[in-house]
Design a protein that fits this description.
361 residues, alpha+beta, seven-stranded mixed β-sheet, two-stranded parallel ribbon, 7 helices, 23% helix, globular
Length: 361
Amino acid sequence: MSGERDGSSVPDEMWEEFLRTSADGAGDAPKEPSARAREAAARLRTEPAGPAPWRAPTSPAVRPRSRKGWYVAGFAAAVALLFVAVDPGGLVGWSGDGDHPTAPLAQETARPEQAPPADEDGRATLAEPFRGSPAARWASGTAGITVPAAEATGWMTRQEVGRALARTRDFLAASNLDPGVLRGGRPAKATALMNPHQKDVTAFVATALSTPGEEHDPLMLFSRFDPAQARLVGDEVRTRGRLSYREGKRGAVEVTADVTYVYPVAPAGGGDEVVRVVVRRETVVSWDDPSEVTTEKGTFTLLSYKLDMTNGGCGAPTGHFRPEFGGGAPAAAADGPAVDPYDRTAPLGEGRDGCGTATRS
């Protein structure tokens, strides 16, 4: 209802109430409209109504303090809606050329169909360690590892599957992103998530960390650098990959992690040369039903692990990645296959003998 009647901007009932309350001296009686207000009301009755102005919705608990607040909120929201309508993917650059190669990539939810394009935008520096690499558009740390929505699977409820996925990602972080582990420390947080009753794995890990060798290389599970040989540049490790899961044997929840990690490093002794070590891992773990498998709460059984690394060293295992500096490459690399370490289009192979040549870093 408009609150108007018979051409007057104030209803007759309100004027009657006004006369009564004015006689009594009431201070909040309505005031008679001015001649200008009556003229405006008459003009509005004869002109067609225009479109109602759009305003941003206001939370019941928070109201604007001024008309300016309404205008600013409405204008900003309108600009945002216009941008989404024109560019729903957020991929158009402000330059107007429709190409925004530095925009962060959306999370990986399935195996990509093609390798990322080449980036010729310079070499890595101490200030920009991911420059010239597809990883410049990747997320940092666990933000680059996609975790799917949890659903009840096998012996686990939806909530339990969600916890299993979160703990699997915790293991990836503890074994490949933890600063202390990256600097050569022991991966205590990672091993705490591994089923202590899986004796072959616990024996492998113990031997690999104490006396690494061809048959017991800790790099198969953990990313570690020798601080006397290389130092990490900055505090970021770029990642790209995803988790997936299915029902495994005896109702277990089997989780597969396929993730690529990019580590920028420089010589331990100083200098401004920056190279990158690119590591792709596929790790499969099983969250077992305790009534079917001997396990401990909150731990998984390790089913398989695969590794591909670029510029991590080609000599005998030392328990650490050993990147090459000075622009050189080991002689063994010349006899191996050419590999694009950023190509995630194919499943990780069973492993390569010797060292290949990376097409980029």
